[in-house]
Amino acid sequence: MARLSLAVLSVFLALFPSALAKNVARDANGVFSTCNHDFAFTWDDGPYEWTEEIVDEFDCMAGKTTLFVSGTTGGCIYSPDNVSRLRYAFEAGHQIASHAWRDVDMNSMTNAQIDEQIQRLDEAIIKILGVRPKVFRAPATLTSSSVISYIQSKHGKTIVTSDAPSNDAAQGATGSSVYAFFQSLAAGGASTRRISQSTETSQAALDGMDQGSVEVLATAGIRLVTVAQCLDINPYETVGSYGVRDSSWTCDGTWTAPATSTNCQQTYTAQAGENTCSKIAAKFSGLSGSDIYFANPSLNCQDIWQWTSICIPPASGTTTIPCSQTYATQPGENTCSKIATKFGTSAELVSAANRQVNCQDIWTGTPLCIPQATATTSSSTPGPTGTNGCSAYTAQAGDTCTKLATKFGTTVASIKASNPSWLNCDDIWANTPLTICVGSTSTSTSSASTSTSSGSACNAYTAQSGDTCTKLATKFGTTVDSIKASNPSWLNCDDIWANTPLTICAASGSTSTSSSSTSTSSSNGNNVCSSYSAQSGDNCTKLAAKFGTTVALIKSSNPSWLNCDDIWEWTPLTICVPAGATTSTPTDVQTSTSTSTSSSATSTATETCVTKYAAGDNETCITVATKFGLSATDIFNANNFLNCNSIWKFTPICIPPGGKGCTKTINSWPGATCANVATAYGTTESNVRFWNDFVDCNSIWTNTPLCVAH
C-alpha cells in the first residue's frame, strides 16, 4: 500500500476547512512569515539527492515537512530520480510547495515572465503528482507590492517567507552552526511557532540534520507540521492523478503557455455551490480540476463565484485514466510491473490510474483500476435482471437519488430502501455501487430497511468477514444467481470483502431485515446469525457463554484465521446460535466497560487500551511512547509481542492509559474523510490528520480506528 498520509492520499486533499482560521502572521501585503500554531520546518531548492533522507528523518520524528521545489535548481524536476523523490515525499504525507521554475529574482519581472516561473512549475508538479500547489515562496524575498499582488490575484498563491532562516547556505555555515540554530529555537518549548527555512542542496543543512536539528525540536515537544497545517489553509488548488511520462516531460526548449479560452469546447456559467475547479470538472466527462485551471488560469480554484464564465476545454484523455475493470490483487502481485504484465499494459499507466498505491509494495487484495488503452462508452442504464426488477448500477458524477429515480422510472424511497443506510441521496460519489429496483414498493424505518415487492424482497446488507455468495444464499434463503444478478458485476462471489455494500433479494414470500448494528435472518439452516464487533478481552469461550452458543459454532461461522484465544478488538464476527435458543443479541459497544446478559451468563469486559495506533515507518517503542506522553516500558508492557527496536509499519499498537495522547477513538464509516470526521466530533481537520497520520484523509477505509480527541 502507498506510503500515505495514508495523507496523501489522503494526504493532502482538495478540501480543507473552508473558513480560514484567524491568521496572526500575515503582513500588510498578505504575506505569511510565521505559523498560527506549531512549527513548520521547510526546505528550498529541491528535489535533490538528499530528499528521501530528509523525508525519512521527519517520518522517524513523527513530523511533517514542506518542500519548496524548483524546476531546475536541484537538477531537472522531470528526471526519473527527481520524479521518484517527489513522489516519495508526497506519498509519505509531506507538503510540496512552489519555489518558482528557476532560481531568479522576480521583483523586476514582467507579468509574462512571472507567469512562466509559476505556471511552468505548476504544470510540472501536476504532471508528476497530480496536484497544483497553493503555497509559494519566491527564490529571492519579494519586495515589490505589485508583484506580490499579481501572484496572489492571477495565480491564487498564498505567499510565504520565513521568520527563522537557518542561513545554512551562507559562507562559513557548518553542520554545527545549523544544529546550534535549531537548538536555540527548541529552547522555546512546545509553544514555539515558526516557519524555518533550510536549503535542500546545502551540505551544512544535511550535516546539521545528521547532528540532530530536527530531533532537537521534536524532543522538546514541538509539533512539526506542514505550512498548510500551521496556517490552516489548503495545500493544493487541485488534486488529481499522477501523469504518464511523455515528450513534454523536459526542462529543455522554450516553454509554451497552457491553453486559454481560444480552444474552449464550450463556455459554462458556474452555478450556486460549484465553487471549485474540481466541482466544475466533475460535471464534464474526462476532465480534472487541473484541466479547468489551465483553461482558466485567472480562476481561484478554491473560490469560484456564482455566474463566473468558465472555459470548458476538450477532454485531454490523459488526466483521467479509464478503467477496463476493477481487479483485486492476488498474493505475489505486489508491483505495478507485475500487474501491467498480467493485463498487457504498462506499469506507468497502472501507476497513473492508481495514485493511492505504492507501486513497489501493493498489498494482496488491493482493488486496482486496470487501465484501458482508450476511453470506452457504455450504457449507464442498468437492465433489469432476474424476476426481482433490480440491477446493479455504478454512480456517475452528479447523480442524486432524485435524478436516478427520474432516469430509471422508480422512486427515491425505493432507491433508499435498496441501498445501504449511509447513502447520502444529495451527494452520491462517482463510482459508488448502487442497486436500482424498478416496480417495487418499499418501506423503511430509522432502525432497519425492508423492501418488498410482489415478486421478491430486497434489502441492503453490509458484508461480514468470511461471506461468500453461497453462504449468503443459505443465510437469507435465496440463490447465488439472485445475489449475482442484484449486485455489481465486479463482485467476486468467493472472496467478498468485509463491509462491501450488497443487495440481497430473497425468494418470493420471504422477508429480510438489515440494520446498522445487527443483521439477523431466519435461514434455511438451523441457526440464527448476527454480526458483532469484538470488544477488548473477548475470546470464543466468553462469546459462546455470552450469546448461548458453542465455541465450535463460532469457529465454523468465521474465517479460519480467527484466533479464538486472542480476538482483536473491533474484529467483525458472525455469531450464530441454534434456532429457537434464547439469546442476547450482539451489539456494537464502544464504551470502556460493557455488560451483556444472556440466558446463560453475564460477562463484563474492561478496556486496557485508551486507543489503538497503527505504527508508521521506522517506529520504535520510544517514538510511539513520545507521541502519547508515555514511556517505552509502558508501550512494551501493553504490547509484549513487539520488537521495540523495529516495529513493522501498520502494526496495531495498544496505547495504555496514563499518557497525554488520544482520549477517544471511533471506527470510521463508509465515505469517511478527515474533514467530515472532524465536523462530526467537534474538532479540526488538521487535528484529525495529525492524530491519524497513517490514513489517507481523502479515502479512509471503513472501520479504521481513528483518534478524535486528544
From TrEMBL:
Cellular component terms per the entry's GO annotation: plasma membrane; side of membrane
Cleavable signal peptide: 1-21
GO biological process entries: carbohydrate metabolic process; cell wall organization
UniProt-annotated location(s): Cell membrane
Membrane topology type: Lipid-anchor; GPI-anchor
Principal location class: membrane
Superkingdom: Eukaryota
InterPro entries, sorted: Glyco_hydro/deAcase_b/a-brl, LysM, LysM1-like, LysM_dom_sf, NODB_dom
Pfam families for the chain: LysM, Polysacc_deac_1
UniProt KW Glycoprotein keyword: yes
Keyword Cytoplasm: no
Protein name: Related to deacetylase
